[in-house]
Amino acid sequence: DAGVIQSPRHEVTEMGQEVTLRCKPISGHDYLFWYRQTMMRGLELLIYFNNNVPIDDSGMPEDRFSAKMPNASFSTLKIQPSEPRDSAVYFCASRLSGGKTDTQYFGPGTRLTVL
Amino acid sequence: GNSVTQMEGPVTLSEEAFLTINCTYTATGYPSLFWYVQYPGEGLQLLLKATKADDKGSNKGFEATYRKETTSFHLEKGSVQVSDSAVYFCALNQGAQKLVFGQGTRLTINP
After folding, report:
1. pLDDT tens figures, B31-44
2. pLDDT tens digits, residue range B58-96?
3. pLDDT (0 to 100) of residue B69
């Protein structure tokens, strides 16, 4: 199993530019989560999907952030326009519903730097 | 709302020392409790979990017991190794899907 795949691993951009982060969940998993990690705020859940449908986006900081999941094997998190305060590590995670486990499996993260 | 409080780091120990990282929580109902570990440059990995009071989760020599009376889930290991150097996160599940994380504790083990 390849695990959760995220791309790019590192992104450096200038303020005002559009940034798109990508995630491929573990095959067969029906939940997908986007998190943001910063020194000041720790790990925050931004949004999660179930069967490609957004269920809770209450953690999305503002309208500049949007997330989509067009199919079961791909999701994007877009920031437009980006700002320096968006600099963080963004993690994607997936899990399989049912069974005895509620474990989320995390990708390696995308380190975003907005200059 | 639900929250998790971890002991502040960083924590620095010598190899073979005993490790305790404290974690307390505030929650309604009976959440599952987790410890995740993050090695440098990597994502979070589940280390262990417990789903009900008095359960003990264990993995790779680490243990934590779900204590409802003290609302705690402290992480322990009897003899740490240099390879245990990482950031450790305590977490609980809020509702069916949301994980609420503590701030993380950075652990460094010196040879």
Report:
1. 899 999 999 888 89
2. 999 999 999 999 999 999 999 999 999 999 999 998 766
3. 94
pLDDT per position as a tens digit, A35-61 = 999 988 889 999 999 999 999 999 998
Q: Which residues on A lie below 8 Å from B97 (Cβ)? A: 31, 33, 48, 50, 55-56, 95, 102
Is the pLDDT at A1 greater than 80? The verdict is no
Q: Does A98 lie at the interface with B, CB-CB under 8 angstroms? A: no
d(Cα B75, Cα B35) in Å, to the nearest integer? 8
Contact A91 B103 (CB under 8 A): no
A16: which 2 tokens? 């005002």
Going from the C-alpha of B83 to that of each of A10, A44, A74, A85, the distances in angstroms are 25, 27, 33, 33
- Are B90 and B7 contacting, i.e. CB atoms less than 8 angstroms apart? no
Residue A5 and residue A74: Cα distance in Å, rounded?
10
How crowded is residue B31: how many other Cβ atoms within 10 Å of its Cβ? Answer: 22
Half-sphere exposure of residue B29: CA atoms within 13 angstroms, side-chain side: 11
What is the secondary structure of A76-89 as a DSSP string? EEEESS--GGG-EE
**Number of neighbours of residue A19 by Cβ within 10 angstroms:** 21
pLDDT of residue A85: 95
Q: Enumerate the residues of chain A whose CB falls inside 8 A of the CB of residue B98.
A: 45, 48, 56
Contact criterion met (CB < 8 Å) for A43 and B104: yes
